[in-house]
Amino acid sequence: MGLAIIVRGHLRPGITRSGHSGIVMLVHLLKSKLHCAAVTAASVHYEGSLTIADDLIERAGLYPYERILCSNMANGARWETYVIQGKRGSGVIELNGAVAHLGKPGDRITIMAFTEVEEHQARGWKPKVLVLDEKNQVVTERGI
To answer: What is the reported pTM?
Structure first.
């Protein structure tokens, strides 16, 4: 068999990063999580997304327009959307567009982003996790 790399589950000819021939397995893992974020607003008439205070975006290692998965601890709703920057230091967590129907101010949500890493990196992987209080201030921080 020739040289191969698996990219997003597909076998591709190539060489591994270490320069050795073989197969590289990519594992989809949690990269960042904002746990217990308090929803501050819900705007059905805004273009769909989730607005997050810019300082929380940076601290969690997220990027503007990055795809995220959210879950509402009050009602069990889950949805996928993307990050939009909110005012730094404001604590804003705003549901925009259709997802505004999935929560209301005061609901606590978990915001998750994922990444793909090579199998050898997955064994000791530690995601960046921020646990927030009711004002969206960081209470606990752990991980990369």
So the answer is: 0.84
